[in-house]
Amino acid sequence: MARYDAEADYVVVGAGSSGCVLASRLSEDAASSVILVEAGGRDDHPYLRMPLGFLRAVRDPRFGWNFMSEPEAHLGGRPLWIPRGKVLGGCSSINGMFYMRGHPLDYDGWAAVGCTGWGYEHVLPYFKRSETSWRGEDRYHGSKGPLHVIPVNTNGLFHEEMMEAAKRCGYPITDDINGEVPEGFARGEVTIDSRGRRSSAARAYLHPSMKRPNLRVELNALTTRVLFEGQTAVGIEYAREGRITRVRARREVLLSGGAYNSPQLLMLSGVGPAAHLNRHAIPVVADLPGVGRNLSEHAVSMVEFAATRANTFLSKLRADRAALSAARWAIFGGGAFSTLINSCNGIIRTEPGLDRPDVQLMCNPVRLDADVWYPGFSERKQHLFSVGIVALHPHSRGHVELHSADPTAAPRLVMNLAQESHDVATIRRGIRAVRELYRTSPQAELTGAELTPGEQIRSDAEIDAFVRSSVQLTQHPVGTCSMGTGPDAVLDAELKVRGVQGLRVIDASIMPTVPGGNTNAAAIMIGEKGADLVLGRPALSADVDAVWRVPADRHGTQAVVPPARQFA
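Above: the chain sequence. Below: its structure as C-alpha cells.
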C-alpha cells in the first residue's frame, strides 16, 4: 500500500472563492476532517484588505499566477493578460469586489441543459445563505451569512447625475439588481464589511474556521496531481520547497482551483482528452474530451471621455490626500479608500425583445490606470470618465490545454475572444449606448471630448475594428469542467467527475455558461451548494415568493420570457 504523509476525510485543492467556502462548511462537522491545500500564501497584506488596494493587488506578482493567453487569432495576435489570485481567498482577495449574481434566466438555462437542481429557484437559497446584506433579510437577501455586502459609497462619484441621465435615456432604474427587477441602472454593491475591509472568501469563511482542530490549511503548496487507485481518486501530491507530500482522502478529493487550474490538474492526473494526454505521455485514467473546453469569458472594451472639470476621483489621489485617506481607512474604516470607485452599474438590453440584458456598463468617474501622484514631482493624469462595456452572454469559446506534463508550467490558454461576430456586435451596441448616455443631461455637462475610441470612429466597421484592437478580459472565466448531460460534460449535476469515483470539481469551472454579471458571488454560491452535495444534505428550499419581473425596456417592449417563467 502506498505511503501517505497525511490523511483526512476530505482534501480540498485551492483556497479560492469556492474552496474557502467548502473547507469552512465541511469542517463544521466535528466528526469530519479537512485538509485545504493552497499554492499561494497568506492574505494579510494591506493591498488585500483595503478596498481601493485592489488597483495594486491585481497587478502585484506576489498575489497572482501571472498568466498570459496565447496570441489571440481574432485580436490581431494580441496575447491577453490574465491575473488570477494565488493567495488565500484566490481572486476574491484581489478582485474589484463587485457583487452581482446574474439574471434568473441564466440559472434556469443551466437547468434546461441537464443541470438538475441548478435553476434560479434552487440557487437563490444558497446566495441568501452566503450573505449578510446591508438590506437585511428579505425574499432575495440574507442577513446571517459570512459574506458582507454593502452599497458603494457614491459621495462625490457623480451617481445622481448618471442615474438621471439613464432615466432620461429611457432605461429602467432599479433599487436592487439582484432582486425583483434584475436589470436597469443601480448603485453598485460590493463585498466589503462594516469596518471598511474587503470581505473575501478567505476573510468571510476560512479565517473564522481555521481555529477548528479538524481543519488543516497548507500554504505555498502546489498540487501536482490527483492520486488514483484504478478509477478511484484516493488523494493528492503537492510540492513545497522541493519536497513532495502525499495526502490521502478517506472520502473525496475536491478540486477548487478555478477555470484554469482545475482542468490543468485533471489533465496532469490523467483525466481529460485522451489524445491530448497521450501527446504529453500522461497515462489516461478517464478519457473526458470536455476537460478544458467550453471556456467562456466576459469581454470588455473601454470608452473614455475627458471631464469638463478637475473634480473626478483623481483629485483624491494627490499624495497628501491619499495619505490622509489611507490613515482614515486604517483607523476608522471609512473614507475614499474604503469603497469602490463606481458611479453606477448599468445592466441593459441593447435590442428590443431580448429575454434578458446583454450588456453591463461599469461607469467610473476615474481612469482605470489612475494612481497616486505627487505635485511637483510626478505628472497628474488627465481627469476623465471611463466606462467598461461588457458583453454578458458571449458566444465565443476558448480552451485550456497543457503546455507540458510539468505541473509548474502555466497552462496553455486560448481565449478565442471575439471569435464570434455576435460578441463584437454586442459591444458595438454598448458603445453607442454609452455615447448617448454621456451626452444626456445632467451627465452631459460634466462630459468633454470622447478620447477613446474617439468621435471620428462612427461606422460599424470602424467600431468593430476598435473593439478587436482594445477588448480585454473581465477575469470571469467559467465552463472548463462543465456540468451537464452532453458528450462534452465533465461533471454530473452533483459535481462528480464522470468516469471516476471519489472526485468532484467545485468552482467556477462547473458553469455551463457564464452568468450575466461579475462571477465571484456565483462561485461562492457554488461552494455553498457544493458543500451540501458532498455532505448529502437536503437542498435548501426555495422561497416561492421570490419572483422577479421584467420591466419594459427603452423601446417600450417587454422581454420575451419563456411561458414557464412568466412572473407578475
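The first strand starts at residue 6 and ends at 13.
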